[in-house]
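[09:14] KT: can someone run the structure on this one? pasting the chain below
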Amino acid sequence: MRRSSRLARQPYRHPVNQEMFDNAPVGARIADKVTNFMGSWTFIVIQTVIVAIWVLGNLYLLFHFDPYPFIFLNLAFSTQAAYAAPLILLASNRTSARDRLTLEHAAAEADIEDAQNERLLTGNTEILKKVEGLEQKILELETRIMERLDKHAG
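[09:31] RB: done, structure tokens below
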């Protein structure tokens, strides 16, 4: 049951991106998950609640470990930023690589479609030339028939 629910939650990935996802090292997957979480409203709300509790608790002396200039809170933010920055860069590099693979794949597909369209256009042009030739022959036959009818009528 767990496996089927996990499979159901996985988004569709094009084979180009699926290969990159499947071959990703553990660190890259962790960086992706952390940056996805840090870029979410859930993270913003949780962090806002923690900061509000921290500040209000220390201002109203419910806690006594970090008074007003909030040195420890500042240290916590600095530590968070120090870890977040490289993780964001790692995830950004993977996103750039994935986008590049997707664009290269799309360009290759477009080249294939262009070649197919060129063949279809050439085929259609040949068919139109044959139809034009047939129309010319029909007109010639019609002219001869009309001439013969005119000779027999006259």
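[09:33] KT: thanks! The first helix runs from residue 2 to 9.
[09:34] RB: yep, looked fine to me
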